[in-house]
Design the sequence.
């Protein structure tokens, strides 16, 4: 007997042998078991996913005689032994009429086909019309089919299959029960190929099956045909090297070498790998696709290590590589890779485009980080982790001598000289947190406050003593301690101001009421209250400020300061940020080794970010209440039915600060 290809030899003959398409299998099995049979079924999907196979299995279920000759004999598990089942499997069943619509598109062919619909089946229980590639029929053919498709005789079933359902008229779609078959994922294809090759007694390598599964692009028939070709190419064996040579794919080791050069931030090595790769004359666009594919798997390895497949036999190598990247780097490299893929057509040549894309990945890495932090797997928190030990114990560098006292930063020197009550005001030497400053001070002279704010502030100024050495601007008097909504938030700031208030200072000509503060903690313990009070004076910005704003002081032994970091911000932890925070603390006199330890924060302790959000919410609520009491606003509400949109109430300096 002549050789039968694997795609035909291993075609499923029952629903239970079907690979994938569980959603279609379940609906058809239940309909057959319950006797709820439709007269027309439409199977859609790409090539090689089982449309014709499902139609033939359904035809066997409708005509199997193992349970009897009547309608009660319809079953979801055909026996495969009766005359009807064997005839359908062998392609000689008289009452299964298979039509290739691509070769019979004319209306005359359709009319000839429908002339025999009225006659009862010759051999089976039902006469089944299987029309493949039905979208190829002409418009006249569809029109001729409509009436019969809507009300066929009881003994007729229509099974239609197409790869392009958009070309079918809506009148045909509405008369059919439609099932859309899914693409086969590589994992399912590899599993099925392994079973087939084991049954065939063909030696194989799993990595070779992954190459075949990906090359099939979701089609099981394509995968079986490629497997036939691989067996012939490998002289009865399916090996990775043979399959790679047959498919013309690149050796995966070259791709991993390029990714390792990215992890090591080694540009000379990166260009050397590209040069070695160019000697093989590869498709550089495919090389970039493979690199982005590896980056995708690295991102999965960081988040869900168990979900990484062993498609190229490189699972362990990927897990090791994933620990050498930060989560941000992988996401950035992936984005640059896919954008570089689209720019390749505009480049002078493909090799140049690949080299520029890889160099762009290194150029856009965060500056100041010589080597990526080690990343624990799996990553915890809401985002990718940049590493638990990236900023651990960073010793102070030799020769660093922070200036004492430090000069205030220009952005933090307050231009306005408002009068503050001495008993409740924060120390002028250490600027308070931004939201607290907004709650305790009036708008800058450049802003024109609304009239109701002026009246309230004038009333507060009448009860507040005048500050010596400065004359406040009109409407800029600070509220007294009894009217200060955030007066209870100042004990820590007053404690920080105690040693500074006893020392003489020389006035700053640029800021008459602002004095330069000495180091807040020179020898003693640095606690969380000190951290909250001096946070703004650190002068941090960008990602470093955001990272520090989610930290609380956990311990200080005089040599090492340990900050507890909110786990949700662990992805931002990197050595460059830890170094900047340590240097900023040293600049205000807190010279310590700095360690950031991600972990759950105590619920009773407030981070600088939480404090700022709380004070901003208090200010917003007070502003809304003041506006609601304003007589002008009340008149507008009474006269015109106006309403106050609370989300638009913002601080006067919000735009400048944004």
Sequence:
């Amino acid at each position: 007997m002549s050789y039968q290809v694997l795609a035909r030899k291993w075609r499923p003959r029952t629903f239970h042998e079907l690979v994938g398409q569980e959603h279609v299998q379940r609906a058809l099995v239940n309909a057959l078991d319950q006797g709820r049979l439709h007269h027309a079924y439409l199977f859609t999907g790409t090539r090689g996913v089982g449309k014709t196979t499902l139609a033939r299995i359904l035809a066997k279920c409708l005509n199997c005689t193992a349970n009897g000759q009547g309608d009660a004999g319809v079953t979801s598990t055909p026996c495969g032994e009766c005359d009807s089942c064997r005839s359908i499997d062998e392609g000689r069943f008289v009452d299964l009429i298979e039509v290739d619509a691509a070769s019979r598109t004319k209306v005359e062919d359709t009319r000839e086909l429908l002339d025999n619909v009225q006659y009862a089946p010759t051999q089976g229980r039902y006469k089944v019309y299987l029309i493949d590639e039905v979208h190829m029929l002409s418009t006249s053919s569809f029109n001729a089919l409509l009436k019969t498709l809507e009300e066929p005789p009881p003994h007729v079933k229509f099974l239609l299959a197409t790869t392009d359902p958009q070309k079918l008229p809506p009148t045909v779609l509405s008369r059919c029960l439609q099932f859309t078959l899914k693409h086969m994922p590589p994992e399912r294809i590899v599993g099925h190929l392994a079973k087939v090759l084991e049954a065939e007694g063909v030696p194989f390598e799993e990595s070779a099956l992954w190459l075949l599964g990906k090359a099939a692009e979701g089609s099981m028939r394509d995968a079986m045909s490629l497997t036939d070709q691989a067996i012939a190419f490998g002289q009865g064996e399916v090996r990775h090297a043979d399959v790679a040579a047959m498919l013309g794919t690149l050796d995966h080791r070259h791709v991993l070498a390029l990714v390792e050069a990215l992890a090591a931030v080694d540009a000379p090595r990166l260009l050397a790998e590209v040069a070695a790769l160019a000697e093989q004359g590869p498709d550089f666009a495919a090389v970039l696709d493979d690199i982005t594919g590896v980056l995708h798997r690295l991102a999965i390895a960081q988040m869900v290590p168990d979900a990484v497949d062993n498609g190229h036999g490189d699972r362990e190598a990927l897990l090791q590589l994933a620990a050498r990247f930060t989560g941000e780097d992988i996401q950035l490299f992936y984005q640059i890779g896919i954008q570089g893929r689209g720019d390749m057509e505009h480049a002078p040549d493909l090799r140049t485009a690949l080299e520029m894309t890889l160099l762009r990945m290194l150029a856009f890495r965060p500056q100041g980080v010589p080597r990526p932090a080690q990343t624990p797997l799996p990553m915890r928190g809401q985002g990718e982790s940049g590493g638990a030990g990236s900023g651990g114990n960073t010793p102070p560098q030799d020769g660093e001598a922070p200036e004492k006292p430090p000069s205030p930063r220009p952005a933090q020197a307050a231009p306005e000289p408002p009068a503050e009550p001495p008993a409740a005001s924060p120390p002028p030497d250490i600027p308070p947190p931004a939201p607290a400053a907004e709650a305790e001070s009036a708008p800058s002279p450049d802003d024109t406050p609304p009239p109701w704010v002026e009246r309230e502030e004038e009333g507060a100024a009448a009860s507040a003593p005048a500050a010596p050495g400065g004359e406040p601007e009109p409407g800029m008097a600070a509220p007294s301690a009894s009217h200060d909504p955030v007066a209870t938030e100042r004990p820590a700031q007053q404690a920080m101001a105690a040693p500074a208030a006893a020392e003489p200072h020389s006035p700053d000509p640029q800021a008459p009421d602002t004095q330069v503060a000495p180091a807040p903690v020179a020898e003693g313990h640095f606690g969380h209250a000190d951290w909250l009070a001096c946070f703004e004076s650190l002068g941090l910005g960008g990602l470093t400020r955001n990272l520090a704003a989610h930290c609380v002081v956990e311990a200080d032994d005089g040599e090492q300061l340990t900050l507890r970091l909110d786990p949700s911000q662990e992805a931002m932890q990197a050595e460059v940020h830890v170094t900047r925070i340590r240097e900023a603390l040293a600049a205000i006199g807190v010279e310590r080794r700095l360690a950031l330890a991600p972990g759950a924060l105590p619920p009773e302790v407030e981070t600088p970010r939480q404090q700022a959000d709380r004070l901003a919410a208090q200010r917003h609520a007070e502003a809304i209440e003041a506006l609601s009491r304003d007589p002008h606003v009340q008149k507008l509400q009474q006269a015109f039915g106006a309403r106050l949109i609370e989300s638009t109430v913002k601080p006067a300096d919000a735009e400048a600060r944004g």
User: Anything to note?
Assistant: The mean pLDDT is 78.
